Amino acid sequence: MLSRDRDVRAALADWETFSSRGGLSLHPRPRHEAGVIIASDPRRPGDPPGVPDHGDLIRAVAGHFSPRAIARLSGPVRAWAHSLVGDLVSAGSFDTVAALARVVPTRVVGDLVGLPEADRYQYADWAAAAMSLQGPDSVIAPHVADRLGAMREHVTQLGTNGGLALAGVGAAVFSAADNDGPLTRQDAISIVWGALIVAGLHTTVAALTWALLAAATYPYQWDRYRNWHRSGDPARLAWTDELLRYESIFPLGYRTTTTVAKVDGYVIPARSRVLILYGAANRDPARWPAADQFVVGRHGVGQHLGLGDGTHRCIGQHLARLETTAVLDAFAAHGVCGFSPVEQQAVWEPNAAVRGWSRFPMTVTLREANHAARI
Ligand code: HEM
C-alpha cells in the first residue's frame, strides 16, 4: 500500500513497473474491466498481438476532452446550469444528489457522448454499480455484478443499431472502430462503456455533492468564491482542484508490479497487487501544508493526485472542472450566500471506489441585495 505523495507520484510515473494491465480493482482483473482504457498500458516490445495499447485507446477520445473541446461546451453547459440552479434556489431546499449532482453529469456527459435520453439515469446507476465492484466487497457488490453484463450488451446494441446520436463522441468511437485502424468493435464498446459512462458519471455526481458541502462547511471560502465570481476573477477556478485534493472523491486505485519494486527501502515482490492511496497522498503533510484544511488558492494545488497522475491521468478533468464551476457560478449568480446541509437526513453511499452520498438535503440562504447575474 502506497500512501505518501512522493511514493504514489513515483509509482504512477513508472507504468512499466506498476502496471495497470491487471485492472484497477482489488481482485485480479474482473472480466468487466477487459479492454477499458484504465486497465491498459502503452505497448511494450514483445507484447503478444491483441494486447490493447493505451495510446491507441486514449487517442480515440482524447481530442473530445482537450481544453479547447471542453471550452466549446462552456456556454451551453453554463446557461443550462444557471437555469437548473435557479429552480433549486427558488425552491429554497432540495436533495443535492437527486436534484443536482446526478442531473448535471447525466445531462452533460449524456449529450457529449450522444446517449439516448430515456436511458441516461439507468446509465448513472450502472456507473455507480461498476465503480462499487473495484474494491473490497461492498454491501451492494453482490447485487450488481450481473447488471454489468447487461450494461455492456446495451452499449453494444447502441453502437450496432445507430442508437447513439451521430454528432456524439460515442458514435465517433464506433465509427473509428469500423474504419481501418487499430480500434476493434470490442475496444469501442469498452471505451464507451468504461471510459465515458462509468468513469464520467458517478465521479462527477460525487464531486458536485462535495462541492456544495465544502461551501457549507467553509462559509469563508464560499464568501471568497462569491467575491471572485462577482469580479470575474479566475482565482475561483482553483475551487475544484482544492476540492479534489481535500475530498479525494476517487481515493484509491490499484496496480500490479511487473518486476521486483523498491519503495523507500521496502521490497515489493513481482506480481504483487499494490494499493495506491490518492486520498492519503493528497493529505500528506510532507507535501501539503495544513493538509487537513480546505484552502482555495493554495500553492501548487493543480498537482494534487485526485485525478491520478502520469499515463492514466484523468481525461475528463476539464469537463469535471467545467461542470463544478458552472454549478458554483450559478449558485453565486443567484445570490446564494449560505448552504445549510440537513445532516440527519443524509445517506452515505456504500461504494468501494467513489466517496459520495446517496442523499444530502440542503437549504440555501439568499443575500438581500440582488446583484446582476453573471452566467
Ligand atoms: C471529479 C470527477 C472525476 C474524478 C475525481 C476522476 C478521477 C480519476 C482518477 C483518479 C483517474 C486515474 C485513476 C488511476 O490511474 O488509477 C481517472 C482516470 C480517468 N478518468 Fe476520471 N475522474 C473524474 C471525471 C471524469 C470524467 C467526467 C470522465 C469522462 C467523461 C473521466 C474519464 C476518465 C478516464 C477515461 C480515465 C482513464 C484515463 C487513462 O487511463 O488514460 N473522468 N479519473
Q: How does this structure look, described?
A:
This protein has one domain: Cytochrome p450, CATH 1.10.630. The protein is globular and about 65 Å long. It is mostly helical and 375 residues long. The model is unreliable at 369-375 (pLDDT under 50). Strand 8 (347-348) and strand 9 (357-359) form a beta hairpin. The strands form 4 sheets. Strands 1-3-6 form a 3-stranded antiparallel β-sheet. It has 13 helices and 10 strands. It is 48% helix and 10% strand. Helix 6 (120-132) packs across helix 7 (141-160). It binds protoporphyrin IX containing FE.
Quick take:
The protein has 375 residues and is mainly α. It has helices spanning 5-13, 54-62, 67-91, 96-101, 103-113, 120-132, 141-160, 169-178, 185-217, 219-231, 238-247, 278-282, 317-333, and strands at residues 18-19, 93-95, 252-257, 261-263, 266-268, 273-277, 336-341, 347-348, 357-359, 361-366. A hairpin with a 2-residue loop joins strand 4 and strand 5 (266-268).
The computed structural class is: mainly alpha
Q: Figure out the total of helices.
A: 13
- How are the strands of the biggest sheet laid out side by side? 1-3-6
What's the number of extended β-strand segments? 10
What is the global morphology? globular
**Percent of residues in beta strands?**
5-15%
Ligands, ions, cofactors: protoporphyrin IX containing FE
What descriptive keywords fit this protein?
10% strand; disordered C terminus; binds protoporphyrin IX containing FE
